[in-house]
Amino acid sequence: MGCMVLTVMLNGVLLLCNHWSVAYHETIAYQSLAGNQIDKCTHVRVRIDNRKQNIIKRFIVPIIEKTIEMTPGNVIIAHQVEVQKKKFSFSKDRKTFSQIPYPVDDSIEYY
After folding, report:
1. Which pTM does this prediction carry?
2. Separation between Cα atoms, residue 8 and residue 57, nearest integer Å
3. DSSP 42-97
4. Are 78 and 68 in contact (CB under 8 A)?
5. Cβ count within 10 A of residue 100
6. Quick one: 70 exposed, middle or buried, by C-beta within 10 A (0-12, 13-18, 19+)?
7. What is the C-alpha separation between 30 and 103, in angstroms, rounded?
8. Phi, psi at residue 28, to the nearest 5°?
9. 21, 24, 29, 30: CA torsion to nearest 10
10. Would you state the pLDDT for residue 19?
11. How many whole angstroms separate alpha carbon 45 and alpha carbon 22?
12. 97 C-beta neighbours (distance < 10 Å), count
């Protein structure tokens, strides 16, 4: 009877650790790759700092691959992630994700 209770408690603790901790889930389910191996990555860990509320949120989000045709016959694969309804695109030069720039400086007539 005592062994069964210990087993149930251990399973409960592991389930809660998996639910609560992104770092725990990352070490169990994923492995790290270098920044230049973005083609092999399926998910990334994202850290968002909210300085006003002094909160740090961590997520594991899937990478979205989009094919963009720049010119006829010239196709580029863009790697993007979406976190809290914001899209970020991967830059191979900086080896990091940055927010997609939206042109907001043009006049209303331009749009």
Report:
1. 0.62
2. 30
3. -EEEEEEEETTTTEEEEEEEEPEEEEEEEETTEEEEEEEEEETTEEEEEETTTTEE
4. yes
5. 11
6. exposed
7. 36
8. -80, -45
9. 100
10. 64
11. 8
12. 20
Radius of gyration of the chain (CA): 20
* Cβ-based neighbours of 17, under 8 Å, separated by 6 or more: 24
CB 90: neighbour CB atoms within 10 A? 19
Instruction: Give the integer Cα–Cα distance in Å for 99 and 87.
Output: 6
Mean pLDDT by 10 residues, the chain (111 residues): 81 74 75 77 84 82 84 82 86 82 78 68
Handedness of CA 51, 53, 54, 56 (dihedral sign): negative
